[in-house]
Design brief:
Alpha-Beta Plaits, two-stranded antiparallel ribbon, alpha+beta, 35% strand
Length: 121
């Protein structure tokens, strides 16, 4: 028996390709924007911002309770006080790649050092 798609969590991945000198400022701007998204949008689960060691890429990972929650948050990101497209221009991103994924399997370590696996049928 399959879990309905709307009951699966939803992940958005946004990868930015930039010049290395732009990386710290982009990471800072994405951090502020991600905190606003988390505070102002229901359905937020977690997020991370990752920077490549060569300074040329930044990955913004956002996870939501549902596709609808993620899409609503992204719409607010596009029209926020510093909209998404302004953020891209301000940090001179060469390319921006978007990906959307349903979470089917996750593994995490708890505070008691045990591994917890979640499998969505």
């Amino acid at each position: 028996m399959q879990t309905p798609e709307k009951n699966r969590s939803f992940t958005q991945l946004i990868e930015f390709e930039i010049e290395p000198h732009q990386q710290p400022a982009l990471v800072s701007a994405l951090s502020r924007q991600t905190e606003r998204l988390a505070q102002c949008n229901s359905g937020f689960l977690n997020a991370s911002i990752q920077a490549s060691e060569d300074g040329r890429r930044v990955l913004n990972y956002l996870q939501w309770q549902s596709r609808e929650a993620g899409e609503a948050a992204f719409q607010s990101f596009e029209s926020g006080e510093q909209d998404f497209w302004q953020l891209i221009r301000a940090h001179r991103a060469k390319t921006v790649t978007f990906g959307s994924f349903q979470v089917l399997h996750s593994l995490e370590r708890s505070h008691d050092d045990a591994l917890h696996c979640t499998l969505v049928p």
